[in-house]
Amino acid sequence: MSSTHITSAARQILNQFPKVTRVNQGRFENLLAAVAGLDGNRSLSASDAQALADRIESIKPGATRLLKKDILALQADIDAYIAEQPMPGVDIAFTSAGQNTRRFRGEILNQIDEALTDANGEHVDVDILIFSFTDKILADELLSRAEQHDNLTIRVLTDWSQLPTSGSRQPTRLHREAQARGIDNLIVKYKKDNPYVWDATNERPKFSHGATDGLNHHKGLVISIANKPVTLMSGSFNWSLSAMRNYENMMTLKDENATCRDAIRHYRQEFGALWNENDFALTYDEARAYKNELYSDLFDTHGIAHNIVNTPIGHIVDPVYVVPADYVDFDINVPSDDLIDWLSRETAQNADIIVEEYLMSLQEYGRYQDWEELVDRCPAFGRLPSATQDNMNQTLQFGKGKLALNQAGDEVLENLGLSASARAALSVYLTDHGAMESFDELDFVSGLSDDEIQSIRLNLSASEIAAFFSGTIPGGVTSDGLSNRRDTWTIPSSGNILGDEGGLESHRINMLDVDATLSIPFSEVLLRAQPGETAYVAMYGLSTNTEEFAAIEEAAHRGVHIEVVLHKSYNAGAFAALSDLEAQGLPVKTFKINSKTMHQKFIVVGDDVCNGSANASRSSVNKHAEDRFLLRNIPSVAKTFMEEFELLKANSTRQP
């Protein structure tokens, strides 16, 4: 059995446990190791030990001795518990579960309130990208919080269609209410657009969805405390009462899980890039002036007299949002060079001893749960002056999750004890074969010692969450979002046909670096699918002239089973094309939702999920501002989406 560290407080609780015979001692030690591993390390904390004590008492009250059958029963409990555990820091809400006012509007407000509490007076930024915002109660709650908290800034970047006040649209009302009440920390901007065509019958301009220069189709927010992005909420859910009656989802990511951080920060960077781009985002006054200009041009073109007062824009203040290029973390469980440097500065003459002790325990036993466990495992911390300890405890974060291996970087790997040759071998492997499906693949990386593999398994994650964007400046070229945080992504060169070769799928022998477009995460999920595996697609809008549909068709020809649930409207071409594939004998099944709006936009294959705001349409990639998230190798998330898919299918009709 691998060694397990037992904290002093945990040992006191263990001393009160029922006795274990010598013959069962090995089984009991394995049980303790399993319990210690529930929070991602091999250190048994007091809370771990107490949880086990409570379970023993519940199944065998007053026991003085644990028998083999008792230990096996406890081990089975732990195995079942592990199988049911969600990924920390990741929550998926579906409107199909009910209580939607609380679970959607309420959760948005709860996350903001939680940040305000955690900030303890530090500044909080709430940066919102939203297509449709008609929930007046939610709007009023945002106004109230902005008015009550001087340390809060709320920015709303919405779609051009929200510029009027008709139809319960809230952004412009928010802007006017904030101005009228002197609330200067709630700011609204609009995605620049020209969706107007000439209405010959009424001899005036009219709004046309088909004429748009591109929608701001995002449906989310990112919350930052003292400039540190901590929470991301996104999905298919618009902020409207009608959305609560649809089939929708909303995903919440928290930075307590290191795997979530890259996606959260990428979203914040994208928000800042959109907000600060003068040819993309307009203030209310700028938007009104631009609309007047568009109307005047149409009237003039058609020779119709008009009387539109153009608003001068020279005096308008267009607030710039200064977003840091990135944020430096001090998560004790992510041993970056920045963290090591900070520890060295804080601990002064004791630095060498403390850093070595900290790194060795991290490599051997895995993540630290809290300050008490850090001091127990690394006693040198406990010998620091009280003021230094207090400052470190307040500054350090004890992340619940683990950093994705793909996001770890050379410095983290070195601090986890990997040699230069091992780091190089791992880099070559990931370049040649792409992200791992599981850490079982570490056995195929030449040059990794058993200790190095153990350190990777303990301290890093095979799971990964990555964000992808589209966003085009009106009149500009198609882009993969405006933040330029990621230029390329590595995908298999082709889908799997031959199956397993030496432990690796054959299609991952050749990898390609491609532009990180919005289509890539959807396509990659299908490229990684193996023949006989099933891909489950729920999509509000699916066009047949897209990369997404091409990936579906290609996967079906390889023997991947395809099940697709579509909204009843707007998808006639997709229904016909999917039916044609099934008629050809390909493993394709199509279902139509007739009962209510099916507004989901996700795909699930195995343990991988792609979810976000984007329909599978060319305009989503080439014109609109959208997001998608790749959630790779996360069984609990995939299970959640699969349960939703089965519910959608149960409420659908099978299409011929």
C-alpha termini separation: 56 Å
Number of strands: 28
Sheet with the most strands?
A: 8 strands, mixed
Overall outline: globular
Strand order of the largest sheet: 5-13-12-11-6-7-8-14
| Radius of gyration from the alpha-carbon trace, in angstroms | 27 Å
Low-confidence blocks of residues = none
What is the arithmetic mean of pLDDT?
A: 93
Helical percentage: 40-55%
Features:
single chain, about 650 residues, alpha/beta, 8-stranded mixed β-sheet
Q: How would you summarize this macromolecular structure in one to three sentences?
A:
The protein is α/β, with parallel strands linked by helices.
Describe what you observe in this structure:
- The protein has 656 residues and is α/β, with parallel strands linked by helices.
- The chain contains 23 helices and 28 strands.
- The strands form 8 sheets. The protein has an 8-stranded mixed β-sheet with strand order 5-13-12-11-6-7-8-14, with helices on both faces. It has an 8-stranded mixed β-sheet with strand order 17-27-26-25-22-23-24-28, with helices on both faces.
- β25 (601-605) and β26 form a beta hairpin.
- The longest helix is centred in the N-terminal third of the chain and has 20 residues, at 100-119.
- The termini are far apart.
Secondary structure blueprint with pairings:
Elements: E1 5-6, H1 8-14, E2 19-20, H2 25-36, E3 43-44, H3 46-59, E4 65-66, H4 68-84, E5 90-94, H5 100-119, E6 124-130, H6 136-148, E7 152-158, H7 171-180, E8 186-191, E9 196-199, E10 204-207, E11 219-225, E12 228-235, H8 241-245, E13 249-254, H9 258-276, E14 281-283, H10 284-301, H11 337-347, H12 351-365, H13 371-377, H14 379-382, H15 386-395, E15 403-404, H16 405-415, H17 420-433, H18 450-459, E16 460-461, E17 464-470, E18 488-492, E19 500-501, E20 504-505, E21 511-515, H19 520-527, E22 534-539, H20 547-557, E23 561-567, H21 572-583, E24 588-593, E25 601-605, E26 608-612, H22 618-622, E27 626-632, H23 635-650, E28 652-654
Parallel strand pairs: 1-3, 2-4, 6-7, 7-8, 15-16, 22-23, 23-24
Antiparallel strand pairs: 5-13, 6-11, 8-14, 9-10, 11-12, 12-13, 17-27, 18-21, 19-20, 22-25, 24-28, 25-26, 26-27
